[in-house]
Amino acid sequence: QVQLVESGGGLVQAGGSLRLSCAASGRTFNTYAEGWFRQAPGKEREVVAAIRWTGGRTYYADSVQGRFTISGDNAKNTVFLQMNSLKPEDTAVYYCAAKLPSAYYDARRAGMYEYWGQGTQVTVSS
């Protein structure tokens, strides 16, 4: 089992920045990748960014490319999401997710991740 706890959400004005953290505990040595997803009211959960531990390959949704950066500290079992130039449309609950090794991995698909955090609210005011 892997437990994930997000932190760092809050209220920020448009153009501002936030840094989300996702601390993992449990059998973290077996995780293959981690991702950040978000879900706004009335909308489906969507991928924001993802990172594979082996090789450090990253993925970003087009809507956040150039504004958000995902990074990880393997020693501390923590993944970060640095969010700059925030927009009101970034308002959502942000979730981190962890993926165990498998033969196929698509960072964009929420169903591929086995473990999820409880989420942290990000609100961007205009």
Model description:
With 126 residues, the chain is mostly beta strands. It is built from no helices and eleven strands. Strands 2, 4, 5, 6, 9, 10 and 11 form a seven-stranded mixed sheet that branches. A four-stranded antiparallel sheet has the order 1-3-8-7, with no helix packed on it. The chain is globular and about 40 Å long. The chain starts with a strand and ends with a strand. The mean pLDDT is 93.
Provide tags for this entry.
single chain; 126 residues; mainly beta; 7-stranded mixed β-sheet; 4-stranded antiparallel β-sheet; 0% helix; globular
* Radius of gyration based on Cα positions: 14 Å
Q: How much of the polypeptide forms β-strand, as a percent range?
A: over 45%
The biggest beta sheet is recorded as: 7 strands, mixed
Principal-axes geometry comes out as: globular
N-to-C span: 40 Å
Mean pLDDT metric: 93
Percentage of residues assigned to helices? under 10%
Give helix and strand order, one letter per element, not per position.
EEEEEEEEEEE
> How many helices does DSSP assign?
0
What is the number of E strands? Answer: 11
Topology:
Layout: E1 2-7, E2 10-13, E3 18-26, E4 33-39, E5 46-52, E6 58-60, E7 68-73, E8 78-83, E9 92-99, E10 115-116, E11 120-125
Parallel strand pairs: 2-11
Antiparallel strand pairs: 1-3, 3-8, 4-5, 4-9, 5-6, 7-8, 9-10, 9-11
